[in-house]
Amino acid sequence: MGGVIRGLLPFAVAVPVLAALQVLTADAPFLVILSLTVGVNIVLAVSLNIVNGMTGQFSIGHAGFMAVGAYVGGVLSKVTSEYGISFLPEVVSDQVLFALSLVVGGAVAALFGFVVGLPSLRLKGDYLAIVTLGFGEIIRVVVQNTELFGKALGLSGVPARTTLFSCWLVVVVVVVVAKRIHDSSHGRALLAIREDEIAAEAMGVNTTAYKVRSFVVASFFAGVAGGVFAHYQSIVAPSSFTYVKSMEVVVMIVAGGLGSTTGAIVAAVFLTLLPEGLRSVLLAVTGDGALAQKVEQIRMPLYGLLLVVLMLLRPQGLFGTRELWDMGPFRKKRAPSPPSPLSSSASPGAAPEVVR
């Protein structure tokens, strides 16, 4: 019973807080859009960290799975937008159908993750990086030439159903799932694979099965992130899912620390807000709006420069493999070790008796 309560505690805290934020930001559309972008990037970074950080593999095609979830979820929402659940209010019905589209989009992305990961994860080396890179480009070319997905113009008319509440509830779910995986026997197997795959195999760990499972979970949440993205952009364009987007997510988890969920969150928030901060600074200093708009062109070189500086000063990333809840006042207290029978039977300060 205690485990169930601990499992529900994050949601018991998050739901009222997010509901209050939803009400307080009702008249701040720019702040809402910015928070949705941050939320999507956190979901992408934390989910990719399960593969690249916990398992020690190297995937650089996360944008491809995001695209699958975005297009599948967007098409499903367009089809169901003319319908509703009769016994529910319209707002609630829309959110239920929205959640259904997210789950379906994530499931299809997970299926693609299984198909891509099963053959490539049986091999050692950088084969996963090569395969996922190719997969991301294949998905982008397919949607650019498919009438159902709007071809190069993109999929338009997707219902704008993403709210601050729903987006950040997904963030809470993916963070809780990542922590549960890390703390479970499954997570210990993933960490063993990361540290030494040969030793893990020698200890009886089915390395291929565990790697494929972690990849499928990461693909599922990437698809969910794509669905959330599609339902606040309303127009899903192939240009949103290029190789550059995949590398942005990789930079986030490397900067935060491979294997650290906390690091992935902090880096995703910082790197998402950095361009907006630069635009505001340039506009305030120069007063030139055209110059402020050029921030987008220097964003990736700036990310690369920050990454180089970070690798020189702190190669393990901001948090390394540590988590916020493992440091300082958040650290769990260790239970005192039980006294040995020898020490308990002896009087304090007395030397142990030697039996001859």
Keyphrases for this structure?
356 residues; mainly alpha; 14 helices; 0% strand; globular; disordered C terminus
Q: What do you see in this structure?
A:
The protein is mainly alpha-helical. The chain has a domain at 7-241. Helices cover 70% and strands 0% of the residues. The chain is built from 14 helices and no strands. The chain has helices spanning 2-24, 29-54, 62-80, 90-120, 127-144, 164-183, 185-195, 197-202, 207-233, 243-256, 261-286, 289-293, 295-313, 341-345. Helix 2 (29-54) packs parallel to helix 6 (164-183), helix 3 (62-80) runs antiparallel to helix 4 and helix 11 packs across helix 13. The relative contact order is 0.15.
Topology record:
Layout: H1 2-24, H2 29-54, H3 62-80, H4 90-120, H5 127-144, H6 164-183, H7 185-195, H8 197-202, H9 207-233, H10 243-256, H11 261-286, H12 289-293, H13 295-313, H14 341-345
Let me know the average pLDDT.
85
Tally the helices: what do you get? 14
Number of strands: 0
Percentage of residues in strands: under 5%
Rg (CA only): 23 Å
Shape: globular
Q: What is the makeup of the main sheet?
A: none
- Helix percent reads over 70%
Poorly predicted residue ranges: 340-349, 351-356
Distance between the termini: 50 Å
SS-based class: mainly alpha
Order of helices and strands: HHHHHHHHHHHHHH
